[in-house]
Every structure is written in structure tokens, then in C-alpha cells.
Amino acid sequence: MQIHSAFRQALPYFPAQLQIPLSRIPAEQAAEIQEIRLRLGRNLHIVMHGAERAVTKEGALTAEPAEALQISRQIIDTTFQNLSAHSLHSVLGTVRQGFITIAGGSRAGLCGTAVMQQTSIESVRAVSGINLRIASERIGCAEAIAARLGGASQLGGLLLAGPPASGKTTVLRDIARILGTQYRVSLLDERGELAAVTNGQPQFSVGLQTDVFDGYPKAQAIGIAVRVMSPQFVICDELGSEDETDAVLQSLRTGAAFIASAHAGTAEELSRRPQIRTLLQAGAFRNIVMLHPGVRCGEIAAVMPVRQAEA
Asked: What phi and psi, each to the nearest 5 degrees, are found at residue 24?
């Protein structure tokens, strides 16, 4: 398996106080970093193999809080300004949803004080926490799933499930690469994480016959993709809202096969989500693949036909 991490690409978004120690982390460790977490007044942490470790000024990973770098208001504010390219207005749409996607496909989750407009979030002020989830391309990580299902042609109707940081986005990206070598694929990348499109061109390997809908809301992208690109496969992440469910149901009769992901730690948890249950009962998916969390990120925990999962 070839591993390409966007860790180094993310470093310029941090001020020098963090850039320098983070750049000193050995390459073999840096390639496995899943998240860089900044919490105001607390230690700089990274997440690797599902576990948090503090980072020292020398770039060493430690379990001793006294040795770790402290995150100041100035570090938080500078990082936030860099993530938003010093133009909050340009990223306000995603900030309202709690994140900013940066070049290379990494995503910064944000928390702070909500600025409300009646019942809607207008913006976020006094940012107090930033969680930069590092995009990682693992070429070949979906080969085992394809083999378990009987080959690439059998990947249609696949629902990929797992808890946060289990590798769902990374596996979906590799499925697009596998299928895109021989089939027409529409990849719906609402948050810019799957393909990391820059100036219209994906920065990740997503397949020669893959068309990327970058930044489109999924529900709208589903309808547009099946109408205008005649895909054989449609791939998207994190299905779950009612309008997305309706769009999938309306598109099933076009003949396109869907591959999607959903947050769930177990098959039972998955089946308790009403929108996912509706899709399973409608036959939108044939197989469910559960992924391991943490140290086994991206590895298969179970492969279940939908009928077995519902039993």
C-alpha cells in the first residue's frame, strides 16, 4: 500500500511556534498522524492510531503535560486567519457548519462561541478549538474490500460504516480510483475532502473516468450527476439527511449504483438511523462494510449482506 499524507502540506497554516516543532516529527510518525488538535490554554496534541499525544517544543511526542507546547490565544487566532486565508467571508458557508477545508483535502473542525441570527448560526467568534484532520491517500486500501465482494464490478450498492477516524473517506477515495480505471464514476465531494480539487483538478488519485462534483450539496449533486454525466457508479460520503435520502431513492431507477459512507460504530447502530434504514429497505445498498477504528484505521471489521445486517 502506498501512503501519501497531507501532513506537510498543512504545516504552513500554523504559526512558527507550531510549524517548527511539528516539522521535527519524524517522517514515519508524521505519515500516521490523523489529527492536529489545538485547544485554547491547553497542550498541542496530535492523534495517531486513535490515541492522543502531546507535542513538545522539540517535536517529540509525550504523555507528560508539563513538557508540551501550550496553545495561546494568539496561536489560535493566527491559525484561524491562515485557514480562512484572512477572509472569513470567503469561507463563511462552511464555518457555519463548523469546518474549513484547506488545500490538499485536510479539514479543520472549529469550536467557539456561536453568533446566532434568530435560530441559525451566522458565524463563530472567539474560536477556542481547532481540530485539523489530515487527509491521507492510501492507494490500495480498498483492494481487500473489492476482493471480499468478488471484484470491482461488485462494489456497487456498498455502504461503508464506522466510527469517526476509522478511514471511511480514505477508503471511499480508493474505491473511486479502482472503479474510475474502467467505469464512469461521479464522485460527490461536498466538503472538498475526497478529491481535494484545486483549479478544477483533483489532487488525489480518483480514477481516469471519475467526474468530481466539488462543493455541491449532496442532495443536489446526486440529481445533477445522474442526469448529466450518466455514471455507472455514484460515490459520496456521510449520507444521512432526509433530502439526501430522497435524492438517492429518486435516482435508483436510473441504473447508477451507489457507494456511500455513514457514521456508525456497529450494524445495530446503523440500522437505528431512520434515513439509513429507509435506504436499506429500499434496496439502495446490497452490502455493508464495517471498518475498524483507531490503530486498525481503514481495515475491515466485517462484511455483511444487507439482509444479514437487518436480521
From this structure: -85, -10
